[in-house]
Amino acid sequence: DTMEDKKSQVKAFINEKGQIADSSAFAREMGWDHLVFVGVLKSLEAEGQVTSTPMKQEGWKLTEEGEEYSKKGSPEAQVFDLIKSKGSLAPGDLATELGEVGKVGQGAAIKNKWVEMDKATKTLKPATDSIEDTIKQDLLSLGGLAKDKLDALKKRKMIAPTSLTAYKVEKSAEFSMDAAKAVAEITAEMIQKGTWASAKFKSFNFNNASGLHAGGGHLHPLQKVKTEIRNVLMLMGFEEMCTNQWVESSFWNFDSLFQPQQHPARDAHDTFFMQNPSRAQDLPMDYLNSVKKMHEEGGSGSIGWRYAWSEDEARKTILRTHTTAVSARTLYKLGQDYKKTGVFTPKKYFSIDRVFRNETLDKTHLAEFHQVEGFIADRNIGLGHLIGVLKDFFARVGFAKLRFKPAYNPYTEPSMEIFGFHPTLEKWIEVGNSGVFRPEMIAPMGIPEDVSVIAWGIGVERWAALLYNVESIKELFSFQQDLDASKRNPLCWLKRVEVEE
Ligand code: PHE
């Protein structure tokens, strides 16, 4: 059928019955895809022949598994059939024959008392002569099912909800079975012959036209996520640190963090070293000497790392591997302020910016990525506060549940990896790392001894990938990025989730 044929069929139906009460039922009856019907409807509406009212319809459809079970029978029925045909079967053989279906079906078949375990032979035997596979029957007649049955099928992931906008279609005042075909454009011929005066023109369809895409700049998804995170942290009272130094000295990136010079992270395999300039110039010498002393001999109750610290190693220039280098610089400034004024002001700081690692690129690893980092420096704070702040922050950006795992960092003790429960993926993912900065790190900076600094660092890309539903972070941030996808992406912010008490 052509479009015009379909339009005539729709008009004939409306002419006879007065209306189409439910376009989805109509399309099904005609054997058309509903989208095809919508095309016909829009065309008739443009001609002014009909009017329509949208109606949202919620329904259910079979999942891939559901589809399979509706043909082969439910897992428990498949298990029963197999065991019945064999007389008896060991659970191991059941799994070999039916795979996942065998595993799922075995439990349900036992619960239904269709099969039972023979304790003596450790095999499964039929416990009844025949069964009625109500699951299969239900899957074949979703339309008439009661809510509890639908819920049960959904829970077993055999069906999934669908929603469709169907239409009620009625005649308009201009409805006419023999209306001249409306034309979309005026032609030179129509003007010459004067036929334009009696022609019927299609009206403009402003509702359905998406219009030309406006060119120009677009916000990058990652930029949107960064802005949102920045807003959340500002609301929580954090100040932003200055992050413009991508090229950093090993000193600020590692040594100031009490990371020993033999540490594997300082290897060229993990860190990008700069060739020109290859050494950093301006390092505060007093502080440098305190750091040297801490590495070599210790202090503040520590025995240090006990090796000959090399100033040349510390001066090597690198691309910073974490924004903890930024935190170190900021903390050093706080220490210097304290030395000058004798007053220590508690502070909450954060940063969001780029870091670099010499990584093999894959779906979840990039050589450059972004970190959100933060610290709180105050008296009488510890791990409990750190957990509290992280829970608060993550709840505001969509992770209501957090778990912490003990970890190791050269500069924090104790240290905790942070895992968040992703509400739509329904699984735990590692989101960051955190801890309490060690005295060996903050004492040489001049931070008073009774001040503790709790801190954390989080990778942004993996999050953003989850939020924007992209499978590989390379699609989001690399030369493989799909620029069109960023253009099409709506300006959407992170969802806020209620915090459970
Ligand atoms: N620097 C750590 C990282 O890159 C994160 C971190 C920051 C851990 C602050 C503890 C404290 O993974």
TrEMBL record:
<keyword id="KW-0963">Cytoplasm</keyword>
<keyword id="KW-0067">ATP-binding</keyword>
<keyword id="KW-0547">Nucleotide-binding</keyword>
<keyword id="KW-0030">Aminoacyl-tRNA synthetase</keyword>
<keyword id="KW-0436">Ligase</keyword>
<protein>
    <recommendedName>
        <fullName>phenylalanine--tRNA ligase</fullName>
        <ecNumber>6.1.1.20</ecNumber>
    </recommendedName>
</protein>
<keyword id="KW-0460">Magnesium</keyword>
<keyword id="KW-0648">Protein biosynthesis</keyword>
<keyword id="KW-0479">Metal-binding</keyword>
<feature type="domain" description="Aminoacyl-transfer RNA synthetases class-II family profile">
    <location>
        <begin position="223"/>
        <end position="490"/>
    </location>
</feature>
<comment type="similarity">
    <text>Belongs to the class-II aminoacyl-tRNA synthetase family. Phe-tRNA synthetase alpha subunit type 2 subfamily.</text>
</comment>
